Amino acid sequence: MLYARFANRLERIVRLDVSAPDAVIEDACQFAWSRLATDPGRVRSECVLSWLAKTAVHEAIKLLRRANRDLSLELAAQETPGILSTATTAGPEELFEHRERLDAIGTLPERQQQMLWLQGIGLTYNDIATTTGCTNRTVERQLLRAKRTLRSGA
């Protein structure tokens, strides 16, 4: 059986090539094994260990990059003390109002909705114009119409 024959060696090879936590190494090795299991004909029998090692090393590197890109909430709180205290918990009435506003946005024409959402995530009029392929004047008019409609309650 291949797994019994190569599992420990594969893990040692990946540990030598990649400096990573045990969980990342194990996940990368399991990924390689699963790829081999789904298509056993893809690799010649004399190349199995090298193929597994190469696949697992690539996966471990990919997992490390992904982990470095995603900042956990706990790390953010450690790096910036007090960041969580700025978050507020809305009460039921406030949540209901937010839900009504979101529902009202859903009644607007799609173009106006898109521009409102883009503005809501922090894009400027220029950014919205570039993203949507419109002019700044069109963005301004569409946002004005959308806001006027939302204020009127229609």
Structural descriptors:
mainly alpha, 154 residues, 8 helices
In words, what does this structure look like?
The chain is built from eight helices and no strands. With 154 residues, the protein is an all-alpha fold. Helix 1 (2-17) crosses helix 2, helix 2 (22-38) packs across helix 3 and helix 6 packs across helix 8 (136-152). The mean pLDDT is 85.
Shape: elongated
Strand content: under 5%
Radius of gyration, in angstroms, nearest whole number:
26 Å
Task: List low-confidence stretches.
Answer: none
Report, as a whole number of angstroms, the end-to-end distance: 69 Å
Compute the average pLDDT. 85
Order of helices and strands: HHHHHHHH
Short description:
With 154 residues, the chain is an all-alpha fold. It contains eight helices and no strands. It has helices spanning 2-17, 22-38, 48-69, 73-79, 92-105, 110-120, 125-132, 136-152.
Helix/strand layout:
Elements: H1 2-17, H2 22-38, H3 48-69, H4 73-79, H5 92-105, H6 110-120, H7 125-132, H8 136-152
